TrEMBL record:
Protein name per the record: GGDEF domain-containing phosphodiesterase
Residues of the full protein shown: 514 to 804 of 804
Source organism, top-level taxon: Bacteria
Organism: Sessilibacter corallicola
Ranges of residues in domain EAL: 24-280
């Protein structure tokens, strides 16, 4: 009986594996087609100053506009782009598209030079030997104001090759690019990386913010990460702020900026432009009151 069960177990396992492999292939083919069919789109989520409520920039987030399923979030497909290597091509498109948006908003006068547009770069793309050249070339083709583009990396970029990571970052910094350490606190060695990597921003992962109102240890952790970041001279951003109470807590803990549904979900470029426009009106109003 044990043997039979074992055999069934194995047969079931194989079927599940085959099914999964098939699904993966179908998805891969669809994702490949998506690039030529223009089905990728960048959404933008506001980054907001905790003290003033004014925009400090945005994070660009990839969406797949599926003809039947509508907008698909990257949670479902980014790992397939990575494992198949398609993330290189799509990642290059993301960089270009983000620069096109930034260039437009700068030309329209709604993007201040102290704002940052962040893009997420996968380890696989970041580690390629020609990554720096691709970025330089893109910035020549689609020039944006110096110091306005930011790259978010996670510590998985670093694993195994910290020296190389640092030198890539230093080369990109020469092009005026700044760096944020994303999903901080979720990895294994974040703190030692924080010490060595030339990042200017630390992003506290949303898993620490989610239950911030109720969870005593999350409070301690967020406050500690925030003061550590500040003492290291970094800007501290809290991700995933959904409620007023969370905003008040991160303000007390000394975070500089936040992102989250409380202010805005990630939205398409034309909608984000409206946010930028309102923000710049508010800003001129403030300036005229002050002056
Ligand atoms: P991430 O870079 O940490 O992005 C933050 C994620 O949190 C986004 O999910 C965003 O929509 C979500 N989020 C923001 N505010 C809230 C909130 O208040 N509550 C909750 N529950 N969630 C919030 P999204 O867009 O689904 O992206 C998931 C992950 O996929 C990203 O995590 C990033 O690792 C990856 N990703 C997204 N876009 C890109 C991209 O263009 N390139 C690469 N390489 N990875 C990307
Ligand atoms: Mg990010
Ligand atoms: Mg994050
Ligand atoms: Mg994340």
């Amino acid at each position: 009986q044990v043997k039979e069960g074992g055999r069934n177990g194995i047969a079931f396992f194989n079927e599940a594996m085959a099914e999964q492999a098939k699904n993966q292939l179908v998805l891969e083919a669809e994702l490949h087609k998506a690039l030529s069919a223009d089905q990728y789109e960048l959404f933008y989520q506001a980054k907001v100053d905790v003290q003033t409520g004014m925009l400090t920039g945005a994070e660009a987030l990839l969406r797949w506009k599926h003809p039947e399923r509508g907008y698909v979030s990257p949670g479902i497909f980014i790992s397939v782009l990575e494992s198949s290597g398609m993330i290189i091509e799509v990642g290059q498109w993301i960089l270009e598209e983000a620069c096109r948006s930034l260039q437009k908003w700068q030309a329209l006068g709604v993007w201040n030079d102290d704002m940052h547009l962040s893009i997420n770069i996968s380890p696989r793309q970041f580690r390629r030997s020609d990554f720096v050249d691709e970025v330089k070339k893109t910035l020549m083709d689609i020039p944006v104001h110096r110091g306005t583009l930011d790259i978010e990396i996670t510590e998985s970029v670093v694993i195994g090759n910290i020296e190389e990571t640092i030198s890539t970052m230093e080369e990109l910094a020469l092009e005026g690019i700044s760096f944020s350490l994303d999903d901080f606190g979720t990895g294994y060695s974040s703190i030692s990386y924080l010490k060595r990597l030339p990042v200017s921003t630390l992003k506290i992962d949303q898993s620490f913010i989610r239950d911030l109102g109720e969870d005593r240890s999350d409070k301690v952790l967020v406050e500690s990460m925030s003061s550590m970041g500040r003492l290291l001279g970094l800007k501290v951003v809290a991700e995933g702020v959904e409620e007023q109470e969370q905003l008040e807590l991160i303000r007390d803990f000394g975070c500089d900026e936040y992102q989250g549904y409380f202010f805005s979900r990630p939205i398409p470029a034309d909608q984000f432009y409206k946010l930028l426009h309102e923000n710049s009106l508010k800003q001129s109003l403030k300036a005229s009151r002050a002056g």
